[in-house]
UniProtKB/TrEMBL annotation:
N-terminal signal peptide: 1-25
Keywords from the named record: Signal
Name recorded for this polypeptide: Cupin domain-containing protein
Entry annotated with the keyword Signal: yes
One Pfam entry name: Cupin_2
Domain Cupin type-2: 52-122
Length: 136
């Protein structure tokens, strides 16, 4: 009986300590700025959108897709990009990357926890389609 009581007290103390553990914080969110949307009359139903994405230090994107061809050009900092089933790539200023309309963008993050990163994305997509769609 005494041993059961000791285990009960130990379990109570342990559960209290676990409750004090800090929650894992989500990475800081990226700032996305729409720069332009242009229709493509030569390609009915299509448009181009250009956005600027700014990752704060440690910033990352949730898993998503664009349902578009996405062309990335890095302006500042270092970013890591990847699509489901592909290899992660590390990009620095002046480098480019492409993701297709069927790709699941599984990795998109700032490679640095101390410096911001900034890049442009040109999306060739269906007119009126959202910039991105979250994927679980």
């Amino acid at each position: 009986m005494k041993r059961a009581r000791q285990y009960g007290i130990a379990a109570l103390v342990l559960s209290g300590l676990l409750a004090l553990q800090p929650a894992v914080a989500a990475p800081p969110e990226a700032k996305v700025t729409l720069l332009t949307t242009e229709p493509l009359p030569q390609y009915p139903g299509k448009e181009v959108q250009i956005i600027m994405v700014e990752y704060p230090p440690g910033g990352a994107d949730p898993i998503h897709r664009h349902d578009a061809h996405g062309f990335i050009y890095v302006l500042e900092g270092t970013i890591v990009m990847g699509v489901r089933g592909g290899k992660e790539v590390t990009l620095t200023p002046g480098q480019t990357w492409h993701e297709g309309p069927d790709d699941i963008h599984s990795v998109g993050r700032n490679a640095s926890n101390t410096q911001p990163a900034k890049f442009l994305v040109m999306l060739l997509k269906n007119k009126g389609a959202p910039i991105l769609t979250p994927v679980k």
